[in-house]
Amino acid sequence: LGERLQATMDRIKSKGKVTESDVKVMMREVRLALLEADVNFKVVKQFVNQVKERALGSDVMQSLTPGQQVIKIVKEELTELMGGENQKITLANKPPTVIMMVGLQGAGKTTTAGKLALHLRKNFNKKPMLVAGDIYRPAAIDQLETVGRQIDVPVFSLGDQVKPQQIVTEAMDHAKAEHLDTVIIDTAGRLHIDENLMNELKDIKKIADPHEIMLVVDAMTGQDAVNVAESFNELLDITGVTLTKLDGDTRGGAALSIRSVTEKPIKFVGMSEKMDGLEAFHPDRMAQRILGMGDVLSIIEKAQANVDETDQKELEKKIKDQSFTLDDFLAQMDQVKDLGPLDELLKMMPGANKIKGLDKMQMSGKEIDHVQAIIRSMTMQERENPSVINASRKKRIARGSGRSLQEVNRLLKQFNEMKKMMKQMTSQKGKKKNPFGNM
Ligand code: GDP
Ligand code: MG
Question: Is the ipTM of this complex over 0.90?
Fold first, then answer.
């Protein structure tokens, strides 16, 4: 293929047609992106099937930018899968609001308890109290007291010799007596889920009757996070999730898995170790992050380039056997219509840029519409073989398209010259005179 024609074709991107197998290629990339982001494979499978179904819908396949349409669907479905919108923390109608922090050791319960206290005081004008319910981890109580001092929030503690159930019972009374309207209970974690811990947590739940059971999960743990979330949810019926350590380099696929496995909303994300490092969870932003939007986009664009090539070959063939019709012309215009400077249109048409005078021609969007209207007013036979268009047909076409007879004539003349040019192009194959180089 000649360099110039090649260059011309390169510009005809964002094609109109995508086949089922193109969508499959795209979905393979999406699938990989999700797996790389640590999304559970079962979730990925289900998700990809769902998206595929939508992507194969006719409006997508026939859109001018199917690649982008697919991306849009992927993003929309991911967002929906993670709950659609941000869900706020549950507050009690009648104080105190009780929030119970649960999760494995090191997930970020203690840190998040402090962050939440600060968040509720700052944004909801609450008077929170932290409860030191982890009596097992060495220095756990000290850690919570340090947190409390940092944000100037009282910490209720009975040391590490009193059972957590007792601590929580007394803490509830204390909060009422002190008119503290928010009680945040820090609990113990284990390296793995075990029965003793779960029983203790169940007891605390019964005693405190929390409005929010906030599961804290470390985003960096990836796949494991799913099992953890599933177990905690089964045993405690959690009400929300905070995903911590998203400031790390994880893509955060755990968010998607957790949400689809537990069907409980992720409400917050931890973005730093600091007390102000808590942010509301936004499903759409997370979708972007999980997909590594840039990566996937470029891969899908590549997949599209292959699609373009198929169409390009078809076009090339049509030019060679001189079967390029007005109907093809119409389709070409559709494709370049949204590509920017519209006076470039004719230059993009194979051969057209060599036709005398055409390069001077400026085509506005309106003019393209006019040309298209004229072609659309032709019968298929006329589009395939314009030589049948006699004077009376011309009149009919002009009337049908609402354009003047001169415009119809001009279009037919241009098209004829273009065909002539294409003929020259192919018959001069290999010769130096060929303006398109080696074909
Ligand atoms: P717990 O065992 O569940 O109470 O976890 P901690 O609250 O003690 O947190 C464990 C470690 O993770 C601590 O070093 C925290 O500073 C750190 N951490 C917690 N949340 C975040 C976060 O969102 N980002 C980062 N970078 N570190 C965090
Ligand atoms: Mg802790």
Answer: yes
